[in-house]
Amino acid sequence: MLLALVPIVILALWYAQQTAHQQQKINEIYNKNQLLILSFNALKSDISALEKAHLNNQLLNNAELQKSIESKWQTTKKRIDFLKSSYPIEKLVAKWQQLQLLTPSEQALEVDYGQLQRQLLAIEQPFQNVLEAKLERQAQQLAQLNQYFLFGLFILIPLLVVISLLVIRRVTRQLSALEEVIWQLGEGRFDTPINLHGSEEFVALGKELDWLREELQRSHKQKETFLRHVSHELKTPLASLTEGNSLLQSGSFGAISSPQQRIINIMDGALTRLATLIDDLLNYSAASHPLAQQQHPFAHIKDELLKHFALQIDESNIELKWRDKSEQTCLPYLPVKLILTQLIGNALQYANSTIEVKYCVVHNDVFIDVKDDGPGIELSEQHKLTQPFYRGKHSENHVGSGLGLAIVSECVKQLKGTIRWQHAKQGCHICIQFPSYGAPTNA
After folding, report:
1. C-alpha 171: how far from its chain's center?
2. Range of weakest confidence among 140-144, 329-333, 427-431
3. pLDDT tens, 9-28?
């Protein structure tokens, strides 16, 4: 930017200096012309006065008057010499020479003032033209200077624009690279090293971000290890508690009183919630790692989901509609099943009466849409719902761990797909898209 701006600044300073210099010259020429015009007019007045005095002296023949005429004549000759030397231009040389022949140096009596007056009048117009030409030439130089300045701007401003565009393109490219890196970190892709190119500051920022990536990767692995170990460690005592609670409910240890039954029911509900939470933790931990890509027809995955949610659908009186155009298309079994399990499970908690699951393959891309007629998702919450343990404001009265959509997001990453929320007048509409891995295309 400085390389482009410096020539423009230099050009502007040069133009200002030259303009001031030309303006000064114009003022000097104007002042000189005024002085010459005054001298020329004074010369005409002097010759006219000498002519009258000479005529009078021819009648009076006065010696004092003659001396006065001669003194005045010497002054007039100096004025003529001054005018002749001021602009010795070829156009005026001949006329000044003719005028000089009429001005003998010795005796003013021999001067023909009338002819001198006529000759001076003949010089007046060329003399005026010379003065005007001098000003006009200076004005032309000033106009030429303006043209040079505009031509310089015409060359330098496009150059500045081009350099500015190149700088903006470079900055934009660096900002785009930085934005991509931020999205990479935000989506949890910690395996790809960060290497930013550009200015020294930008490269230094890339090193700092790469250090942050390594720290996040280490923290993420520690979190996954912790969740996996804790979940597995909790499975064994949870199974023991569940079995003991079942034995208590069976009455094998004697009759159960009403207070005892209430305590057993509370324990049973707590154990169910704990089991659900542990299953979610295990699913989230599994979804965060490469999943087995066994291929199963969508019809098989659908049948397993119907069996899994059969009791919950019957108890809730919610209608589950399936709109699938190609049930025999094979899909990655485990990630697709986890995605639909979490989405349908969430929809069953929030829907009022209807859940619709749509599946199709278009141009080698798989589309899975899950819609319900529940309270929906606030626009301000959409970008947070895939974060682990985050729960929206409509989930306060519903059971859940806050890991459902985080599991969905991890599975979608495994499939190299995308998850998005579609605008719906009522309820929630979640769209999943991922490559079909060679599945046949359905229009």
Report:
1. 9
2. 329-333
3. 888 898 899 889 888 888 88
For residues 402-439, one letter each, b for 16 or more C-beta atoms within 10 angstroms of the residue's C-beta and e for the rest, the string is: bbbbbbbbbbbbbbebebebeeeeebbbbebbbebeeb
Phi, psi for residue 390 in degrees, rounded to 5: -85, 135
Identify which of 158, 136, 223 has the alpha carbon closest to the alpha carbon of residue 188.
223
Q: Read off the pLDDT of residues 268-296 as tens digits, 9 standing for 90 and up.
A: 777 777 777 666 666 666 655 555 567 88
Q: Nearest CA to 299 among 272, 265, 274, 322?
A: 322
Confidence of residue 309 (pLDDT cuts 50, 70, 90): confident
Q: Which residues contact 238 (CB under 8 A, 6 or more apart)?
A: 271, 274, 275, 278
Judging by beta carbons within 10 Å of its beta carbon (0-12, 13-18, 19+), is residue 322 exposed, middle or buried? middle
Give me the helices (H) in 189-253, please: 200-250
Rounded Cα gap, residues 252 and 242, in angstroms: 15
Question: Which pLDDT band holds residue 438 (cuts at 50, 70, 90)?
Answer: very low
Sort strands 428-435 and 365-372 into parallel, antiparallel or unpaired.
antiparallel
List C-alpha distances in Å: 215 to 180, 210, 220, 290, 368: 19, 9, 8, 21, 35
> pTM to 2 decimals?
0.46
How far the first Cα of the chain sits from its last, in Å, is 53
Dmax (CA) for the chain in angstroms is 172
- What is the spatial distance between Cα 173 and Cα 210, in angstroms, rounded to a whole number? 19
